[in-house]
Design a protein that fits this description.
Layout lengths: L1 H49 L15
């Protein structure tokens, strides 16, 4: 009798682990999509506030004395 209960318990644990893996996968995909959207908005906002895109290409000229 104990073996049957142990087997049923193991089956339910396997099903639970599978469902949790599916939920974690869906969460990871949603997080990646949201992070991408946030990155796009961050680029747009930084472009609008600095009046320049690609801020790494700015050059400052020094006055020759």
């Amino acid at each position: 009798m104990g073996a049957v209960v142990s087997c049923i318990k193991a089956v339910f644990q396997a099903i639970g682990s599978c469902l949790m893996a599916i939920v974690n996968g869906i969460g990871a995909v949603l997080r990646a999509i949201i992070d991408g959207i946030v990155t796009v908005f961050d680029v747009i906002i930084s472009c609008l506030t600095c009046q320049t895109c690609g801020g790494g290409r700015r050059r400052r000229r020094r006055a020759v004395v």
